[in-house]
Write a structure and sequence with these properties.
It is a single chain. By secondary structure, this protein is α/β, with parallel strands linked by helices. Strand 4, helix 3 and strand 5 form a beta-alpha-beta unit. The longest helix has 35 residues. The chain is elongated and about 85 Å long. It has a seven-stranded mixed beta sheet. The protein folds into two domains: 38 residues; 125 residues, Glutaredoxin. The model has no long low-confidence stretch (mean pLDDT 87).
């Protein structure tokens, strides 16, 4: 019995020493990271492409790995809705069904642009049963448009020109972007 007690005390002491070493190593890494990301002054955010500008043709990848071109010419009268979402974004999970419902009602071509790890985005696609909607990943499109908050909705006309672009949180905000599209269709 005494042997078991001595062995357990020895193992406990070894575990405490190991934890102390791990904490010291982490503290050192935090110090190194703190030095590397020191403030460099006020940064001017880049605006990216704005309404009325065409986006360049970019080939993204779907969650299944298939190429998916964005910015290419679409059939006449097609309005493509790009919705930037994240798997860990609670607002995205709330807005996603709303935006897709509005897209269905208005005859828009929805495409989801995922931000995050592909396995998490695939789980999100499966949870919302979105197998019939293109779900693309990659940072290129987000960098071109300078998307820095989610969920962001971008509407493109059939030539790849940006019709509307904004962060959306509610159905009303999604629908507010659509009168611009209706006016564009009537003018075309």
């Amino acid at each position: 019995m005494m042997t078991v007690l001595i062995v357990s005390q020895g193992l406990l002491f070894a575990a405490i020493v190991a934890l102390v070493l791990v904490v010291l190593a982490l503290a050192r890494q935090i110090g190194i990271l703190h030095e590397r990301i020191a403030p460099i002054g006020q940064q001017t955010p880049q605006r990216g492409l704005d309404v009325g500008q065409p986006i360049p043709r970019i080939t993204m990848r779907t969650l299944d790995g298939a190429p998916f071109p964005v910015g290419e010419r679409l059939p006449a009268g097609t309005i493509r809705m790009l919705l930037f979402v994240g798997a860990d974004c609670p607002v995205c999970k709330r807005v996603l069904p709303i935006a897709l419902d509005v897209a269905r009602e208005r005859g828009l071509d929805p495409v989801l642009v995922g931000d995050g790890a592909p396995p998490e985005l695939a789980a999100m696609r499966d949870r919302f049963a979105l197998s019939d909607i293109p779900f693309i990943t990659g940072v290129e499109l987000g960098l071109v448009l300078q998307v820095n908050r989610l969920p962001t909705l971008v509407l493109l006309d059939d030539s790849g020109t940006i019709l509307a672009r904004d962060v959306v949180n509610t159905r009303r905000q999604v629908e507010t972007l659509l009168p611009t599209v209706a006016g564009h269709s009537a003018a075309a």
